[in-house]
Design brief:
It is a single chain. With 780 residues, the protein is of the alpha+beta class. 17% of the residues lie in helices and 30% in strands. Strands 5, 6, 7, 8, 10, 11, 13, 14, 15, 19 and 20 form an 11-stranded antiparallel β-sheet that branches. An 8-stranded parallel β-barrel has the order 21-22-23-27-28-29-30-31. Strands 4, 9, 12, 16, 17 and 18 form a 6-stranded antiparallel β-sheet that branches. Helix 6 packs parallel to helix 7 and helix 13 runs parallel beside helix 14. The longest helix has 21 residues. The chain is globular and about 75 Å long. Keywords: Glycosidase, Hydrolase. It comes from Streptomyces gottesmaniae. This is Alpha-galactosidase.
Length: 780
């Protein structure tokens, strides 16, 4: 039995030797009554204390979940819990610290500190365990930011033995003792190209049936299980999940912070629910790691947040995401970005097309201007960016591109020849070349940006032969990874990294580019991808170290790499490639589940062919995130430009509140085909600021009522912020907000502020406070 220090140990549970660790917002209880410690539970103040029955968790659930080649997974058990080696890992020591200065127990694999916010105190706890049979030593690392109900966990494994071992699976967090599957619902989020962040829920018992374990002497093998594979880690599902208690509304929400493969499962053990989170495994992903004597391997971070219901847990996870990410001025300023791609130039930029767009973007108030795909292409015609369409295999938005679409459906010549990232002479003729465009952007008061797909090299690119073969990601037999005519760089190799350093230093250091949209339009699941993904994040961090003012947007055919590890380094996240504005609301409304609002890039692409209402609709979808403006603004009338400018002015007037706001869904998490959708943003402290609510109507009844989180009983002032001219009306009746949207489709952005009632005044009603449309300036 382990020894303990009196100042570190408590007997809060008289029936076992236990250790409680944590802070004012979260505590974790550990059972140390046996040689192998166990994590009994993680809870918030006020959550039910565990009783004797709840502490009787399965002893086969230790702190570490580990499988080695030749060692097996345990007795008749295909899952990676209750493993043969986990129970052999014996307690050696533990230590806990608290402070704002990062130490090597929390340094992550990105090259930047895991504890990014210098003003946050971090509580850290490490258990040291040892397996005498193999000589393996495991360091189980927990960390939690003070005052936030979130726990992050990972495991560092060191081979202190005399023989090499091969790791097949090593989990990041294993937690037992959660309530029975009878009491829980499980949440998962489908995440597909053009249809991101689609949450759904079901009783956990639907995946974990009650098999009467008493009659069989053991628990069944069923579990709710999800896995992400390869270089698009969020293709299919987000690397997230949640549990919610159906009676007392406690919520547990998690994310696996991996830009590569991952797996999680929630199952039953000893009548309670367990949760296992981790990165790649051999069985799921053909991954394995050989550890010679003295070598180490560290898992990906996993984070678990707690709160009341899904929304409360997400509030804690949002706060956690903000403190673990790399600090950057972009998170404070939230500038408006114009990108020439979506439903506009579609990968066919030229000096002639860009100059009038630049002038128009500046006129409506854009602050960054990004030249998207195609600026390096000396071939003929445009190119579709992202997913299947980039390979010319599909249409876009079911044919609903809008009249402004100008790109070609067939792949251009550059798709399999990229890699050098030099500007096209044909597209940007003359002595100045592309610098004429970049200079014009700066002259109009904006920061220039460029699209880049740095991790790929086309098979026809000279670089495919010039770089050493080791600079490319390879399969186990040594064959280069080749997908859709592209090779995949392996950034663990110095030549690959030097190539990208030279490219970015030229674009940023010599050309003065201040924004890079880094896209990634192929996918691979080569076993070596995990190491590359960590090197990729380390390279991003080193790039920002050299160019601290640079803003990086993370994109992979929209949201196919929308993971916690990437979002801790990149400033923005592309949430979708969806081109149909009517299909954007469920994506825009759900995006804050995956990314804080101030990092979630949402397209708004008004066109000259749009009605005023259509312009208002597409712009309204982006106002509670990061506005990514596109569209042929240079062809618009002055009246239409006024509508765009008004929307951006509204955004600029509220963006200071968005950077600290927490999301809520007054009508519930949106379904893909819902007629009414609502996204709210509230301040962390109720009453400390206004509540913003965007409401979309795509059909159904003309009126809905609901109560947004943060608006309690009493009088509330209601303002319509967008559109400035609208038939929409909103009224607070003392306990609910009643919203009327006579037209469909339509959108309205509201600001709700608690107000002191005046004598005889009981309700607050808001309609458009500005002139009607026929009073706006006419077009030319």
């Amino acid at each position: 039995m382990p020894q303990h220090d009196s100042h570190q140990w408590t007997d809060s549970f008289p029936w076992s030797l236990s250790y409680r660790w944590g802070h004012s917002a979260l505590t974790a209880d550990f059972d140390l009554s046996a040689d192998t410690p166990r994590l009994l539970g993680v809870r918030r103040p006020g959550d039910p204390e565990p009783g004797p029955e709840e502490t009787k968790t399965d002893p086969s659930l230790p702190l570490v979940d580990l499988v080695l080649l030749g060692q097996g997974t345990g007795w008749s058990r295909p899952r990676f819990t209750g493993t043969a080696i986990g129970a052999r890992l014996k307690y050696r020591a533990h230590h806990s610290t608290c402070g704002t200065t990062p130490d090597n127990t929390t340094a992550d694999t990105t090259g930047s500190s895991a504890d990014s916010d210098d003003h946050v105190r971090w509580h850290r706890l490490t258990f040291e365990l040892h397996d005498p049979a193999t000589g393996l030593t495991a360091f189980v690392e927990y960390a939690s930011p003070d005052g936030i109900a979130a726990l992050r966990s990972r495991v560092r494994l060191r081979n202190d033995g005399s023989e090499s071992v091969t790791v097949r699976s090593l989990g990041s967090l294993l937690l037992g003792g959660l309530p029975s599957p009878d009491d829980l619902s499980v949440f998962r989020a489908r995440n597909d190209w053009l249809a991101e962040c689609r949450w759904y829920t079901e009783p956990l018992r639907d995946s974990v049936p009650d098999v009467n374990p008493e009659a069989h002497g053991g628990t069944g093998h069923a579990a709710a299980r999800l896995a992400g594979r390869g270089s698009w880690p969020t293709d299919g599902h987000l690397a997230m999940g949640a549990l919610q208690h159906r009676r007392d509304d406690r919520g547990w929400l998690w994310q696996i912070e991996s830009a590569s493969s991952w797996v999680w499962e929630a199952g039953e053990s000893a009548g309670r629910t367990y949760l296992a989170l981790g990165g790649p495994t051999h069985d799921e992903h053909q991954w394995r790691q050989v550890l010679p004597p003295g070598a180490e391997f560290t898992t990906e971070w996993a984070a678990l947040a707690l709160g009341d219901r899904f929304e409360g847990a997400l509030a804690a996870l949002t706060a956690y995401r903000r403190v673990v990410r790399r600090p950057h001025p972009d998170h404070i300023r939230l500038p408006v970005i114009f990108n020439d791609y979506m439903n506009t130039l579609m990968g066919d930029p030229t000096t002639e097309k860009l100059l009038p767009l630049i002038d128009a973007a500046a006129e409506v108030g854009a602050e960054y201007f990004c030249v998207d795909a195609g600026w390096y292409d000396d071939g003929e015609g445009g190119e579709r960016e992202g997913g299947e369409e980039a390979r010319g295999e599909g249409g876009g938005g079911e044919g609903e591109r809008g009249d402004g679409w100008e790109g070609g459906d067939s792949p251009g010549g550059w798709w399999d020849s990229v890699g050098a990232w030099l500007p096209s002479v044909r597209r940007f003729p003359g002595d100045g070349g592309i610098r004429v465009v970049l200079d014009r952007i700066r002259e109009r008061g904006m920061v220039p940006g460029l699209w880049l797909e740095p991790e790929v090299v086309g098979v026809r690119s000279p670089l495919a032969a010039e770089l050493p073969v080791e600079a490319f990601l390879r399969h186990e037999d040594g064959t280069r990874v080749t997908e859709q005519g592209r090779h995949q760089l392996d950034l663990t190799h110095p030549a690959a990294r030097a190539h990208l350093d030279g490219t970015v230093d030229r674009l940023v250091g010599e050309w003065g580019v201040g924004y890079l949209k880094l896209d990634y339009n192929i996918t691979t699941s080569a076993p070596a991808h995990l190491a590359h993904s960590r090197a990729w994040l380390s390279w991003l961090s080193s790039t920002l170290d050299r160019h601290p003012g640079l803003v990086i947007e993370n994109c992979a055919s929209g949201g196919m790499r929308m993971d916690g590890a990437s979002l801790a380094v990149a400033q923005l996240q592309s949430t979708s490639d969806q081109q149909d504005p009517l299909r954007c609301p469920p994506i825009a409304a759900s995006a804050p589940t995956a990314v804080p609002p101030e990092q979630g890039a949402v397209w708004a692409y008004p066109q000259p062919s749009c009605t005023d209402e259509e312009i208002a609709f597409t712009l309204g979808s982006a106002l509670l995130g990061r506005v990514h403006l596109s569209g042929h603004l240079n062809r618009m009338t002055q009246r239409q430009l006024t509508l765009v400018r008004d929307a951006l002015d509204t955004y600029k007037s509220i963006r200071g509140d968005l950077r600290t706001a927490l999301p809520c869904w007054p009508l519930g998490l949106p379904g893909w085909s819902d007629d009414w959708i609502a996204l709210g943003l509230r301040q962390p402290v109720a009453g400390a600021g206004p509540v913003y609510v965007t409401v979309w109507r795509r059909g159904g009844d003309a009126e809905r009522s609901f109560t947004p989180t943060g608006c309690g009983p009493g009088d509330v002032r209601v303002e319509v912020l967008h559109p400035r001219a609208t038939a929409a009306a909103a009224r607070w009746d003392g306990s609910q907000l009643r919203v009327s949207l006579p037209d469909a489709p339509s959108v309205v952005l509201l600001r709700l502020t608690p107000a002191r009632p005046s004598p005889g005044h009981r309700h607050s009603t808001a309609q458009s406070p500005v002139p009607a449309l026929d009073q706006l300036p006419p077009g030319p």
